[in-house]
# Entry
Amino acid sequence: MGATRTNYEIAVQDFKRARREAALQQLLSRVNGRSNELLAYDQIIEKLKVVDSVGRGLQEIPLDAIVGSVGRYQDFTRTFLPKKDSDEGRWAGVKTAVLDMRGWPPIDVYKIGEAYFVRDGNHRVSVARQLGNETISAYVTEIQTQVPLTLDDDPEDIIVRAQYAQFLGQTQLDQLRPEADLRMTV
# Structure
């Protein structure tokens, strides 16, 4: 009679599989020159000038629209695969909660344009993506900037957008001539 694996043991194996996939993605990103990194909220918000913030309450948000993190951006790939072996216990604990049907609380995110940044719940996002979920419950705070982000923006696009935001801040062109659109591309 074979031994039955516990949900925690299954979760640890899933974590190890996710780590291998993360390592492969990181290698491929070096080869093809495309970034596989999460965007750092603090760096983005420093470049894009905040106009206002508004609490939008509890919403179902698309996991594919989560592109960054407030504090854990170095711990996960752009697709929220874990990059650090030291996260095994926490990640497996979150996965076990799901396997044991205990669920999890909503995550907490900032929204800038079309993009979301995780304030609390990075491991829940990682596990949800690993499970193939398309959405996740989140408390959303919308951060309004002069130039919003899109899901396709990469760090170079953001630099251009930040310079555009600075230009608008100095010239007030968006207020003086709202019909004018001088956005540049890289």
